[in-house]
Amino acid sequence: MSSNHNASASDVFGSFADIELFLRAIVRPFKLLFLSPICSIFSVYLAIIYGYLYLLFTTISGVYIQDYHWAQDISGLAYLGIGLGMFSGMTRHPTYIFSWITC
Questions:
Q1: Looking at residue 4, what is its pLDDT?
Q2: 97 in a structural domain
Q3: Domain that residue 63 falls in
Q4: Where are the alpha helices (DSSP H) in the chain?
Q5: How far apart are CA 12 and CA 8, in angstroms?
């Protein structure tokens, strides 16, 4: 990085034309994805996890409406337990890790 705060993109990246800079910025992530095995494996893993979470979150309200006979206007309350659980996990996790490290 340059310490000059008034530096332009051509100063930082050299004398590339705008289209060359754009193509380099577009191609670089795909090279990383397809040429790095750990990146590819991690991307597939996260895609599967995202698919499971999407499936879970889209079917929760339908399950409560059909199976538990909740009204449609209160079926969104089923997400409160998930939200509270995530929030309590986020607030508890740093204190747990800190107490584990200091032991």
A1: 64
A2: yes
A3: 9-102
A4: 9-13, 18-35, 37-66, 78-102
A5: 7
d(CA 59, CA 102): 42
Task: Report the run of H or E that residue 3 belongs to, with start and end.
Answer: none
Which residues in the chain show pLDDT less than 50? none
How many structural domains are present in the chain? 1
pTM of the model: 0.60
Quick check: 16 and 24 in contact, CB under 8 A?
Answer: yes
The answer to whether 2 and 11 are in contact (CB under 8 A) is yes
Question: Distances from the Cα of 96 to the Cαs of 31, 46, 82, in angstroms?
Answer: 39, 26, 20
Task: Decide if 33 contacts 43 (C-beta within 8 A).
Answer: yes
Neighbours of 100 (CB within 10 A): 8
Alpha carbons 3 and 11: distance in angstroms, whole number: 12
Q: DSSP letter at 75?
A: G
Please enumerate in sequence order all residues whose Cβ is within 8 A of that of 75, keeping only pairs 6 or more positions apart, or say none.
61, 64, 65
